[in-house]
Amino acid sequence: MTQAARQMTTVHSIQFLRFLAAALVVAYHAFHFIDLNVLALGERLMHFATFGASGVHIFFVISGFIMVWTSEGKFGKASSIGGFARRRFIRIYPIYWALAAINIFIAYAFHLGLPESVSDAIGAAMLAPGHSSKLIFVGWTLTFELFFYGVFAVLLLLSKRMSVIALSLLFTALAAIGVLFDPANAALHVATDTLLLEFVMGAWIAVIVRSDLPLPGWAPPTLVAAGLVSFGGAALIGPAALPTVISYGGPSALLICGMVLMEKQGRLSQTVKRFSPLGDSSYSLYLVHAMILPPLTMLTAGVFGASLWAALTLAVLLTLVCIAVAHGVYLWLERPLIGAVRKFISPRKV
Fold first, then answer.
1. How do residues 323-335 score in pLDDT, each as one tens digit?
2. 350 within a domain of the structure (yes/no)
3. Residue 148: CB partners within 8 Å, gap ≥ 6?
4. Range of the domain at 146
5. For a surface tag, which of 79, 158, 205, 327 has the fewest beta carbons within 10 Å of its beta carbon?
6. DSSP letters of 200-262?
7. What is the pLDDT of residues 4-31, one digit of tens each?
8. Is residue 319, in this structure, part of any structural domain at all?
9. Is residue 183 part of a domain?
10. Is 60's pLDDT higher than 80?
């Protein structure tokens, strides 16, 4: 492993891209709920607005990268599995449960959807397949994350290279089964979706960045440019033209790989570094925006004019409000909550 890779304890490019991914999803949902609750935006505008869904795919590739990157030195050890599972639990569930509880009151006040049974509520709380969107509607993506984490935890028994190879073979085989049989069962659907291949992409990016593979200076910015051009093409043709693992997953991998390699070469822009701290609140942003955009658009109906510019202005304002609120939630709820749960689960021995 190179000295440059060793020194990248905080990967600013990944932090920035986490924020960008969340912001893209927020913008997409802002347009969606404006179209639903404020005024009809038209098919053409919504066609381009759906590009914001690419943020989910950026997240999945980043997850694959982060799991391999942060597990350096933990591969090949059975003792690593418990610590990995504990860290993932603390990262995902406490803030999700806290915000889901708050969202029950929001949903009740604004007559939004709630779980229809106790089993639905328990399934949603545990982020179980088929139930995970019934407390916070973006919860379905967390089910994919949890499946990936479970598989990855077992693969920690292997060496890093063998674990990534095994992950690649397993997820490719599962995705092939999904394409061939398209299972209707919710759990089987999660376990065989082509989205799993995006975690594999991220895992290999981490292997490449950690390696001593010599790369010419032009290679990383070329990867970034290729990713951006590919995203532009995906925005034009729309997500239905190709499987999203190709239209969004591939460009996500190119962009992430290029930016992380640029950082490794010491060529990351100051703008990226300046905004990278917002990546810390990306999980809160992802959850919070799904809670507040429906009521906010209901409350602003009739306040803004029925014009395209009014809708665009409202979308920008709503996105900025979500970013601000989520960062406050991260500072005053998520971070203290994670700290408290971590101390409760793993108290320091005196």
1. 999 999 999 999 9
2. no
3. 63, 64, 67, 196, 199
4. 3-345
5. 79
6. HHHHHHHHHHHS-----TTHHHHHHHHHHHHHHHHHHH-TTSS-HIIIIIHHHHHHHHHHHHH
7. 555 567 899 999 999 999 999 999 999 9
8. yes
9. yes
10. yes
